[in-house]
Amino acid sequence: MAKKTEVFEAEFEIIETKMVKASPEQKGVEIFAPENKEKIIQAFVNSASLNYSFTPAQSKKMVKESSKLSIKDKDDKEGFQKVYEQHRKFVKARTSTDKERKVLVEPFMEIKKRIDDVAKDDILGILANEEARLKSEVDQWKAWEQEEADRIEKEEADRINQRVSELEAVGIKFDGAFYSCGENISVDIVTIKDLSEEAFSELKKRVSVENEKIEKAEAVQKLHDERRESLLEFWSFIPEDLRTQNFGEMTEKNFSEILENAKIADAKFADDKKKQEEEAQKQIDERKALNYEKRSFQLEKEGFEERENGKWLFVTESGTIQFDKIYLENSDATEWDSAFENAKFKKSEYLKEAEELTEKRKADAIAEAERKNDEEKQKAFNEKLSSRQTALQNLGFKRNNESQLINEGITFEFKVLGEMGESEFLSIMSDATKRKAEIEKEIADKEEAERLQKLPEIQKAERYVEEVMKVEIPQINGVEIAEIISEFKNQIKKASDEAISKLKKLA
Predict the structure, then answer these.
(1) Same domain flag for 144 and 190
(2) For the purposes of burial, counting CB atoms within 10 Å of the CB of 299, is it exposed (0-12), middle (13-18) or buried (19 or more)?
(3) Entry pTM
(4) Contact 432, 395 (CB under 8 A)
């Protein structure tokens, strides 16, 4: 570090000596000469001792090592741990290097600030005001000079615009590049500007004469176009020798005669054409009527019915065949014969299908009636079976599985129970009722005997509970103790009442 500082000081001393000996205008040249500038920068860098904790070589080595690390999947805990630890190393290297950089840069930032302060406060501020005043003087002179140039330019522009306006007034037109009138006059703006007054006056006269010729020709052409357009409706009746003439040059009388003759010829042609079309349409209408009459008769024989708008229909459940009036009238003979034969074939197929459908419906109706009859029988059987099951269950019979009822050794199959006659079932019900009454009496007699047997014991228990309740609470002065004893007495009273109630139910 000491050696680098000495080198920096020696180099800077040499440069400083040159600057002192140099003229003022050469000082900046000397210090900013490429060789001196690089020496100064390098001397500063060397003096700063740019020995970072992490060198470029170390950084590249770390990156090379870490590039081999990765986490294969969510179960790769070992890979995660290695990547995590390496990431921490990189964070530490980056942050520590950045801190070292800030420390090394700080002195140079202060040097820059002091250099800037001297220039701003001691030199630039003094020069700026006078520089501004001198500039305003220069700007004022330039403004005067520009005003004079603008005035001259405007006067010239006004003169040119005036000439252009005068030429446009007598018929000249601008096509984007030149000012022209007819085929013989074409000038650019530079020529118009440079013409003498005599030459400009001559140009105006030429433009005026040429424009009159053009306007006259345009008027003749316009009249020609208008007259020709009025003839277009009757153009086929205009003689060939007249079609190429200029209608604008004709007298009004001659043109009127041509137009009138064309109208007469057109009217005659239209009348003849109308008569021909009417005759042709009459023949067509007669042919259509004949076709419709003949073909509708054929359809009627096959069972087709005429509906609105001349439609002929053959309707079945299997499908519908339709012919429109327009088709009957306009189809040619070959087309109609083919369509009619196809319709007859479809008709036979539809009738066959309809007959089959009718038979199927009859069979389906019979099957449905049988199914409903079976369902009603099964419903009645199920209702009878359910009613009998309920009646027997009310008499004590229990289900031992999905198909049996049993009681006191008597077993009934569900199916048999539903199929037995009414008198047989009533007899069973009567026996079961008697048996239920006998069982209930036996149970009641047994319970009464047990109750009578238990009665002395119940009475002993009642007397014990009553004696417990007769024990008096001793005289106690302590409030808290008295409250505890009182609560205890209440609990005993509650328990005593519950015990007496249960004993009475056993009696």
Answers:
(1) no
(2) buried
(3) 0.28
(4) yes
